[in-house]
Write a structure and sequence with these properties.
Length: 410
C-alpha cells in the first residue's frame, strides 16, 4: 500500500494514534517536575538526587534512540511502540513504589527513558512522514506535534490535583491510567508499517552507509550539535521551574497552570512552525527558535518572579516548545530521504538528550552548590544564542545520493 492509496479515515486513524501516543508520553514526562518537592520531602532525598533520576532518563532516552530508530526502520513501528507502552507503565509503577533514590532512578530514569525512545517524537514523526505525501509532510508533522502537546494540558493539572488529594503516589497511579490509553494509540499508529516507501527512497542502502553519509554532511552535523541546546533549555525548565517557584514562595497551582499553558500554546506553535517549514528555510526557522527561547529565558529570570509573569513566560515558551520537531525531522528527510529517517533523527536526538541530561542534572548540581539557579539560566541563554547562530549557517544541500535520485523520481 502507498500513502496515496490511504483513505482519509485510514490516514486519520494512523496520525491520530501517533499524536495521542506522543501526547500522553510527553505530557506525563514533562509533568514529573511537579512531583519533585513532594518526593524529596517524603523519601528524604535531595534535589540533586531527583534531578539525577530525570537526567538519567534523558540520557537513556538519548543513548537508546538511535538503536530504537534502527529497529523502527527494520521491523516497523508497531512492535516498538507497544513494547514502549508496557515499559512506560512499568516505570511509573516502580516510581510509585520507590523507597529510595536508587529505585526511583530505576523507574523514572531507566524504564521511562527507554519507553520514551519507543513512544515519543522520533517514532511519531516517522509514522507521520510515511503516511502523508511530501507536499503535506511538514504541515502534517507540525499538526501531529501540536496535537502531541495536548497531553501536558491534561497531565499537569491531573498530577497537581492528585498530589493535593492523596499525594504524589496517587498522581503516578493516575498516570498509569493514561499509559493504558497509550496502548490502542500505539496499535493504530503502527498501521503505518504497511505503507511502502517511495521507490527512489527505498533503494538499497545499509544502515552503516546511511550513517557514514550523514556523518560526512556538515549541515547534518551542525544541526545535531545545535540540537543539544533544545534539550538543555526545555528539560532545565520542566525539571527546575517548580522548585524555583517554590523557593520564591509562589503557589504550586501556578506551576501546574504554567506547565499546562506550555502545552496549550505549543499546539499553535508546533502547527505554525510545521506550516512555516513548508514555505520557508527550515534551518533559519530552527535557529530563530533557539534565539527567541534564549531571549525569553533571559527576560524572565532577570525580572522578579510573579504569578502573572510566570504565566506569560510559560505561554511564550510554549509557542516555541516543540516547533523544532517538524523542522528537524523535515531537514533529515530533505537531506537524506525517508529510508533511514528514524535512525538518523535518533542519532541527532542523542545530542538533544545530552543537553537534557545537562539541563536536568546540571541545574540541580548548580543549585545544590550555590543555592541559586542564576548561573544555570545564564548558561542556558549563552549556549542557546551560540546554537541559534550556528544553526542558521548550516549547509542544507541534500546529499549527492538524494540529488541523483531527484531527476529519476521526477
Amino acid at each position: 500500500m502507498k500513502a496515496t492509496d490511504l483513505t482519509r479515515a485510514q490516514s486519520a486513524t494512523i496520525l491520530g494514534g501517533a499524536a495521542l501516543m506522543l501526547s500522553l508520553a510527553m505530557g506525563m514526562r514533562q509533568s514529573l517536575g511537579l512531583l519533585q518537592p513532594h518526593v524529596i520531602r517524603d523519601l528524604g532525598i535531595t534535589a540533586a538526587d531527583y534531578s539525577l533520576a530525570l537526567a538519567i532518563q534523558n540520557i537513556v532516552w538519548g543513548i537508546t534512540q538511535p538503536f530504537v530508530g534502527l529497529l523502527v526502520d527494520r521491523i516497523g513501528a508497531r512492535p516498538v511502540a507497544v513494547t514502549g507502552v508496557i515499559v512506560y507503565a512499568l516505570g511509573l509503577a516502580v516510581m510509585a513504589l520507590a523507597p529510595s533514590a536508587l529505585v526511583l532512578t530505576l523507574g523514572a530514569g531507566l524504564c521511562i527513558g527507554l519507553a520514551l525512545s519507543c513512544t515519543a517524537s522520533n517514532l511519531a514523526m516517522n509514522v507521520t512522514a510515511r503516511t502523508v505525501t511530501p507536499a503535506r509532510r511538514s504541515v502534517a508533522m507540525g499538526a501531529v506535534s501540536a496535537a502531541g502537546s495536548l497531553g501536558l494540558v491534561v497531565a499537569s493539572p491531573l498530577a497537581q490535583a492528585m498530589i493535593v488529594t492523596g499525594g504524589w503516589q496517587l498522581a503516578l497511579v493516575a498516570f498509569l491510567g493514561l499509559a493504558a490509553v497509550m496502548l490502542p494509540a500505539a496499535l493504530a499508529a503502527g498501521r503505518a508499517d504497511a505503507i511502502e516507501l517511495p521507490r527512489s527512497q527505498a533503494a538499497e542502502q545499509s544502515a552503516t552507509q546511511a550513517l557514514r553519509e550523514a556523518a560526512a554532511h556538515g549541515g547534518y552535523v551542525t544541526m545535531a550539535i545545535a540540537f543539544f541546546v533544545c534539550g538543555l533549555q526545555l528539560v532545565f525548565l520542566t525539571t527546575h521551574l517548580p522548585t524555583y517557584l517554590d523557593l520564591c514562595g509562589i503557589d504550586p497551582s501556578v506551576t501546574a497552570t504554567a506547565l499546562a499553558l506550555i502545552g496549550l500554546f505549543n499546539v499553535a506553535g508546533s502547527y505554525l512552525f510545521g506550516w512555516l517549514g513548508q514555505r520557508y528555510p527550515k534551518h533559519l526557522l530552527l535557529g530563530g527558535i533557539y534565539l527567541l527561547r534564549s531571549a525569553i529565558i533571559a527576560v524572565y529570570f532577570l525580572a522578579p518572579p510573579t504569578p502573572t509573569g510566570t504565566l506569560v513566560f510559560a505561554a511564550a515558551m510554549g509557542s516555541l516548545w516543540l516547533g523544532v520537531v517538524p523542522l528537524v525531522n523535515g531537514l533529515v528527510v530533505h537531506l537524506f530521504g525517508l529510508r533511514w529517517m528514524a535512525t538518523l533523527t535518533g542519532v541527532a536526538f542523542f545530542s538533544h538528550q545530552v543537553g537534557s541530561f545537562v539541563g536536568a542534572w546540571g541545574g540541580g548540581a548548580i543549585y545544590a552548590s550555590l543555592g541559586s539557579y542564576e548561573w544555570a539560566w545564564k548558561g542556558a541563554v549563552l549556549i542557546g544564542v551560540a546554537a541559534g547562530l550556528a544553526q542558521m549557517a548550516m549547509n542544507v544541500r541534500p546529499s549527492p545520493r538524494v540529488l541523483a535520485e531527484q531527476p529519476a523520481a521526477a
